[in-house]
Amino acid sequence: MLELFAAAVLAVEEVSTALSGDISGSLALVGYGLAAIGPGVGIGIVAGNAVQAMARQPEAAGMVRTTMFLGIAFTEALALIGFVLFFLA
Prior knowledge:
There is one protein chain. By secondary structure, this protein is mainly α. It has a single domain, classed as Up-down Bundle (F1FO ATP Synthase). Helices cover 89% and strands 0% of the residues. It has helices at 2-18, 23-56, 61-88. Helix 1 packs antiparallel against helix 2 (23-56) and helix 2 (23-56) runs antiparallel to helix 3. The longest helix is centred in the middle third of the chain and has 34 residues, at 23-56.
């Protein structure tokens, strides 16, 4: 995890130097990176809990699967909003 963070910091430094000191571009990159963490964790929680629910009640697997996909879609919408805001910034 720390290696990933260090790589992200190096990427932000490279981008900030490429933008010739424009701080808003590098802040947008950091913002999108942080915005992508939340949906990733959220999707992991939704999928993990769905697997547990299907293991406990296999007869309700169809309903749980449908609800899981809805939860994933709503959570992924947050990542897409962050992606759009990255380009608008």
